[in-house]
Structures are given as structure tokens and as C-alpha cells.
Specification:
The chain is of the alpha+beta class. It has one domain: 2-Layer Sandwich (Heat Shock Protein 90), CATH 3.30.565.10. About 35% of the residues lie in helices and about 25% in strands. It has a 5-stranded antiparallel β-sheet with strand order 1-2-3-5-4, with helices on one face. Helix 2 packs antiparallel against helix 3. The protein is globular.
Length: about 160
């Protein structure tokens, strides 16, 4: 479901594509989801989904014996930032992660894709004009006002 361009509820983030900065994306997603009334379990699912999408967009750096101190979440950095767009619609939260000049995405049967499909309502990807994009859509939880309105509707 598309998000209206008329809404002001859009958060744009460009972060360097290295492990030291990528943790900002699931944290920002959790903050927005909290504001929208998602449950703690739903928030953790969204965090895990964003982490899985990041892992697809930015491959893990190869390990070298002479690389010095090991850093478990080090990602192969690039000049291009990872872009995140959090769009709050009336019925959905859409998270769009993209990387200009990104590498082709791994096969749809990989663990990260399985995580994305299991934890989200909808996920799709595309490579267009040299930009690799993953879109995650999650239905917003019903609010107390929505529940009250539904109780008083005449069917």
C-alpha cells in the first residue's frame, strides 16, 4: 500500500556503510515503531528485519589472517552510504533501504531473505539504475480509538 506524499511523517537517514554506523537504522526503526504503538515483540521483529536487509545490501567483509583485531560486525565499507526512508502511512509503516552502486542481492533462499519474509507483512526488492533497494511494509497496529470505533459500528 503506497504511502501518501502529502504526509510529513517521513524520516530520511543516510549512514556510512560500515558496521560502526549501521546500528542506527534498526534503532531509528524501533523508535518510530514505538511511537506508532507497535508491541515490544513487533518492534524486535522489525529490528531483526532491518538487520537482515542491511546484511543483504552490504556483504560481510572477508576475514584476513593479518587483519589485526577481529571485529565481528565489520562490513565492507564503500563510498556510497546506505539510505533509509521510514514512511508512516495511515495503515502501514514502510521501510525502504537502498544502496547506490550496490552489489546484486543474494539468492531469495538465503537466511536473510527467510528472516525478512517471516518477520514482515511484505518485502520486495529491485535493482534499478545501479541502486539496490529493499522495501519492507508492516501493517500498523490498531489504536484504541480504532478499536472503539469498530465496537460502535453498525453492520
Amino acid at each position: 500500500m503506497p504511502v501518501s506524499d502529502e504526509r510529513d511523517d517521513v524520516l530520511l537517514l543516510d549512514v556510512p556503510s560500515t558496521g560502526d554506523y549501521l546500528s542506527v537504522l534498526p534503532t531509528a526503526t524501533a523508535a518510530v515503531a514505538t511511537r506508532l504503538g507497535f508491541s515490544l515483540d513487533e518492534i524486535e521483529d522489525l529490528r531483526a528485519a532491518v538487520n537482515a536487509a542491511v546484511a543483504l545490501l552490504i556483504p560481510t567483509a572477508p576475514k584476513h589472517a593479518d587483519a589485526g583485531r577481529a571485529r565481528p560486525f565489520r562490513r565492507r565499507g564503500g563510498d556510497e552510504p546506505l539510505r533509509c526512508r521510514l514512511e508512516v502511512g495511515e495503515e502501514t509503516l514502510q521501510i525502504v533501504l537502498s544502496r547506490p552502486k550496490g552489489e546484486p542481492l543474494p539468492d531469495a533462499g538465503t537466511y536473510q531473505w527467510q528472516v525478512l519474509r517471516a518477520l514482515t507483512d511484505e518485502v520486495d526488492s529491485e535493482v534499478e539504475g545501479g541502486t539496490t533497494t529493499i522495501r519492507i511494509r508492516q501493517r500498523r497496529p490498531a489504536t484504541e480509538a480504532d478499536a472503539e470505533t469498530e465496537r460502535h459500528q453498525i453492520n
